[in-house]
Description:
By secondary structure, the chain is of the alpha+beta class. It is built from 4 helices and 17 strands. The chain has a 17-stranded mixed beta sheet that branches. It is globular and about 50 Å long.
Amino acid sequence: MHGAGNDFIIINNIAGDIPETDYAPLARKLCASHTSIGADGLMVVVKAEKGGDYGMRFYNSDGSVGEMCGNGARCIARYGYENGLAGSVQRIETTAGPVTGERLSRRIYKVRLNDPTLIVPRKKLILDGQELELGYIELGSPGIPHAVVLLPDMDTRDRDALRELGRRLRFHPEFPKGANVNFVQQLGENHLKILTYERGVEDFTLACGTGSGSVAAICHILGLTGSNNIRLENRGGELSVDLKRDGDRVFDIYLSGPTNIVCEGEILDEDLN
């Protein structure tokens, strides 16, 4: 499945036939684009442990554990609804905490992202001896780390140079857990363009759900958006974020957007043992 170009392989393991120790190597193998299916990440549906409808385990394409994935959660909410695991409103257990998913139409799904546990609207760090200002936010606990870099001229920047900047910020010592790096260009009062260098994928992705939520939160605090409903143009499509704010506190962040089922079937990869 994919949500606005952010693509995932989903495996149902509620029965527990696949040991958890296999999740990371499966992600590395199956997400490889040239030798297997190829995807930004692997999501495993597991049995709920805390009263939810089911659990979601997310792994990046390099096999690293992801706390949560916004577009992934939207896709898995559709999977849960269409496979009888939950109703049109559902509660999904993730590593970063519970996430509520809702079916708006056959292909449009909305999820409530984890509330921020840390927000630094203006953070300064040194890169190549120069001071750079950005925003930093963590969603959920353990927090999903996102850096937000405002670039009014993003469209005119060299893409390879921007990718290298994203890579260097992603590994900057100021971010001990690493960070997803979101470059942002304002298109209108409540209309933003976003390009995300994702931790674990180690490249730009076509869309990032938690990145879109993080960008909307930081930009709202900075006064760049005047509405609680914000449109975000990702390379893979448009996402919508609704949120609430009380001073520097942002909460009730909802991410809405399209989902697409690409294929269903069996994995026959002969290199898997």
